[in-house]
Design a protein that fits this description.
Blueprint lengths: L2 H16 L5 E3 L10 E5 L9 E7 L6 H8 L1 H8 L2 E6 L15 H4 L4 H16 L2 E11 L1 H12 L6 E5 L10 H8 L7 H9 L11 E7 L8 H14 L7 E3 L8 E7 L5 E8 L6 E3 L15 E3 L4 H9 L7
Parallel strand pairs: 3-4, 3-5, 5-6, 6-7, 7-10, 11-12
Antiparallel strand pairs: 1-2, 2-4, 8-9, 9-10
């Protein structure tokens, strides 16, 4: 074999090794009071420019690998050069692998699972050359509720967030209380909803992240009423009203999807709500090879010609490639 060909083949092999194919576990990231696992997908480890970070929190009965495959975040990270952090629950903490969003000892600032996720973010910022102004969080179901806990306890960290089929921060303080909340049988005033957030950072005067909400109107596990609860809670903390300033029916030509914007006085969207008719407790996917396509078919997903992960990345401002 000619030396030039050998060199070229060696170059290709080495280049492929530099591109991570899946998330890897990080074992020692902090004190880890919540006893969670940490996985990171860093598609180009040798990249020297600062990169955005997306934290993805799985739902019950899922793990880091499954939520990565289900959502398609890794594909978008590889194509747009950002890092994805996947916290993972342990069976010993919750037999259903749910993040314990209904336990005060796990969702208050400096405590439990919430603190473990905070430690993961700090570790990632130091070790993966993260742009501190471009940190985002997203979660599914129980992961959505834990995402709300992170926003409530550490609002200064995040630029934006998205929650899929979740509920508000501290809407329940126990397992059976959580079941009542999920079924939509609890009622709250907006003052009650905002008070529990303000208690986490009494002196905080800074901005709160923009929040994107996805919820199926036929969700039989987390009643759609919870979407209204999240809107009320976040509108209260953003000092805006709960009447949408912009409504797009049949969003992107899809009859079942309605997009609503709740803006501040300057016209900036602070809450974006995707109401989805004829959707239960599932993630919207659109499998395919195109940039705007992705997600994995399964019991936790449904096809409607709309890749919700891609749309979230677009709302976050993460896309560098255009379809």
């Amino acid at each position: 074999m000619k030396p030039v060909i050998k060199f070229f083949l060696l170059f290709l092999i080495c280049t492929n090794l530099l591109y991570s194919q899946e998330a890897v576990e990080v074992e020692h990231f902090g004190k880890n009071p919540g006893n969670l696992k940490m996985f990171v997908y860093n598609p180009v480890p040798t990249e020297t420019t600062k990169k955005p970070l997306v934290i993805v929190l799985h739902g019950c009965t899922q793990n880091a690998k499954e939520v990565a495959e289900l959502t398609g975040w890794d594909k978008l990270a590889k194509n747009n050069n950002f890092v994805v952090l996947y916290p993972q629950q342990k069976f010993i903490n919750n037999p259903n692998s749910c993040f314990n969003w209904f336990r005060e000892s796990d969702v208050e600032k400096g405590k439990g699972e919430c603190e473990s996720i905070f430690e993961m973010i700090q570790y990632a910022k130091i070790n993966y050359n993260i742009d501190s102004d471009k940190i985002y969080i997203t979660g599914l179901s129980a992961g959505a509720c834990m995402s709300m806990a992170m926003l409530a306890t550490h609002p200064e960290i995040f630029q934006s967030a998205s929650v899929f089929s979740g509920g508000g921060y501290k809407i329940a303080t126990g397992f059976f209380d959580a079941l009542q909340a999920m079924s939509g049988k609890k009622n709250y005033t907006q003052n009650e909803l905002t008070k529990v957030i303000k208690e986490q950072n009494p002196e905080y005067k800074g901005a709160y992240p923009t929040l994107i909400i996805y919820h199926g109107k036929d969700d039989g596990l987390v009643n759609y009423k919870n979407a209204s609860v999240v809107v009320s809670q976040w509108a209260g903390i953003q000092n805006i009203d709960t009447i949408p300033d912009k409504t797009e029916n049949s969003f992107m030509g899809i009859n079942d999807i309605c997009r609503k914007e709740f803006q501040d006085s300057a016209g900036h969207p602070k809450i974006i709500l995707y109401e989805v008719a004829n959707l239960g407790h599932k993630l919207l996917i659109n499998p395919g090879e195109k940039e705007e396509e992705g997600g994995k078919k399964g019991r936790s997903s449904v096809e409607k010609g709309f890749h919700s992960t891609y749309q979230t990345a677009k709302e976050f401002g993460l896309l560098t490639l255009k379809p």
